[in-house]
Amino acid sequence: MENVAIARVLAEIGDLLEIRGDNPFKIRAYRNAAQVVRDCGERVAGLAAADLRALPGIGKDIAARVLELAETGGSAFHRELAAAFPAGLLDVLRLQGVGPKTTALLYKELHVGSVAQLTQALDSGAVRGVKGMGPGKEAALRKAIEDHQSFAGRYLASEVWQQAHAVLAHLSAACPDATFDLVGSLRRGAETCGDLDILATDAGPEVMQHFTSFARVERVLGQGPTKSSVRLGKGLQADLRLVPAQSRGAALQYFTGSKAHNIELRDRAVRQGLKLNEYGLFRLEDDTRVAGETEASIYEALGLAWIAPELREQRGEFEAASAGRLPVLIERADLRGDLHCHTTATDGKDTIRAMAQAAQEIGLTYLAITDHSQALAMANGLDERRALAHAAAIRALNDELDGITLLAGIECDIRADGTMDLADDCLAQLDVVVASVHSALSQEPERMTDRVLRALECPWVDILGHPTARMLLRRDASGLDVEAVISQAARLGVALEINGQPHRRDLHDAHARLARDRGVKIVISSDAHGVAGFTHLHWATCTARRAWLTPQDVLTCLPLEALRAALRRHRRDA
DNA sequence: GCCGTTTTCGGCCCGACTGTTTTCAGTCG
């Protein structure tokens, strides 16, 4: 059983306990454990009880449930809880504005067990007969159902980024003296976002009116003097909070999250006789402000170094910050080259020359052209003859370029049986080979793993591209045993890619961190299919930072000659 | 249900907004 599947069951136990009205701290414990499992780089299904219990937030009971899930694929406790309520009740719980109390009330009073039954209860007028349900609630429920049907609920970070900048441009024009910060999951560099969070300082309450009257606002969900929420196009919810300038640091900290990080930080404050909220850090005894104008002042007052937003996921950042062992995280500007992109030779939109110029303009000093191999017929993939001719053209262009060096590479398909799509003597003549899986994605986990392990045996494979082939919000990762692949990559000196396409972000952060810990080098790639695609390096860097990576962990931070020497084909220690 | 440099028992983050309440509960982040 994969981590995401185990995490799903644990989270659902939390939801069901909540409807049942159970101890809120028990509910939190299950949700917290679900997050820990989801973020764990290793497969928790493969861990022994003692190792499970070593994970933060997993104690005796939850460890036993995880073991049971790993062994049997199910949990008796989960089945028992689920049997007590209709399956559709969890959908009711997830409606906007509907919490556990309302869900339980509707179920108890009206036997509402699904969104469809809630619609019926609204239409029949039964809802308004329930105590506490007025016309306002009734209308809110109808809107929530409407939203539930039209919005899936999560958005790619890159989509939210675009909307965010449109909102910021509008607000900045309306309130030129105000300061606006993007906070929430977007600031943490997350892969997907549930909403968009914006913080305003140095602004009057009229900023709320400007916000809710923005042209792209489809619905105002709430408006007050310091907090407003709106629904933008495609259903994305955006929240704006206004705080005084002296609280900007505290509010940045608070609204950036994550929730788990904030709970721990507040807990630390309480243990030191302090109280932390979005307005500042205060002494409990007399409410004296201790810090709040900057984020760093808050962390410092709590005995911690400032923690980069990407690390705020309660994955060991507090221990590192208090011990002075936080990593100096990689930044986009540390990247000296890109080893994965496409041109018009296959499915790219721009020529070799245009790609080279675009890469140079963003500060790169080398670029590997890695078009597709023949198996990707749909993309006009290259056979051996075309691949070598393409390589010759790439190298010839180097004579005309100044300030950037092109490498002749290929993104070679890994066939369903694990053999490479191009002959060894062809691959040997190239400067760099990225091996990737593009087909037969539904293979059984064992077969998929064997396939990739076999591909890595090919001595000319330097990099494994987008290892799990997942597509965020579209399809799950393949059944690949990533830990086994990491071990093989470490043994053979193959680098693993963090692919920056916004819907890939593959490897994801937890696996990239594990790979680094096991001695595997990482490559940060754009997989650009046109000059605009180099912006993907930003998203790959976000993932690398969330994986705690430093420039020393990433091959593409090396200058060209050192990079060449570090590629698997040239490694002396391999 | 988890956890421990005050603790193996007794805690566990905190404030804004909404709708239904005539003083507050529920939800959200």
Report on the structure:
- It contains 24 helices and 17 strands.
- The mean pLDDT is 92.
- The protein has 574 residues and is an alpha/beta fold.
- It has a seven-stranded parallel beta sheet. A five-stranded mixed beta sheet has the order 2-4-7-6-5, sandwiched between helices. It has a three-stranded antiparallel beta sheet with strand order 8-9-10.
- A hairpin with a 3-residue loop joins strand 5 (219-223) and strand 6.
- The chain is 43% helix and 13% strand.
- It binds one DNA strand of 29 nucleotides through residues 23-30, 32-33, 56-62, 96-102, 132-137, 140, 184, 195, 197, 222-224, 226-229, 239, 241, 254-255, 257, 259, 262-263, 265-267, 269-271, 275-279.
Give descriptors for this structure.
single chain, 574 residues, alpha/beta, 24 helices, globular, DNA-binding
List the helices and strands and how they pair.
Elements: H1 3-20, H2 24-39, H3 49-54, H4 60-72, H5 76-83, H6 89-93, H7 100-110, H8 115-123, H9 135-150, E1 155-156, H10 157-174, E2 179-183, H11 184-187, E3 192-193, E4 195-201, H12 206-212, E5 219-223, E6 227-231, E7 237-242, H13 248-256, H14 259-271, E8 274-277, E9 280-283, E10 289-291, H15 295-301, H16 317-322, E11 337-338, H17 352-361, E12 366-372, H18 384-398, E13 405-413, H19 424-427, E14 432-436, H20 445-457, E15 463-464, H21 482-492, E16 495-499, H22 509-517, E17 522-525, H23 536-546, H24 560-566
Helix pairs in contact: 1-2, 1-5, 1-7, 13-15, 20-21, 22-23
This protein binds one DNA strand of 29 nucleotides through helix 2, helix 4, helix 7, helix 9 and strand 6.
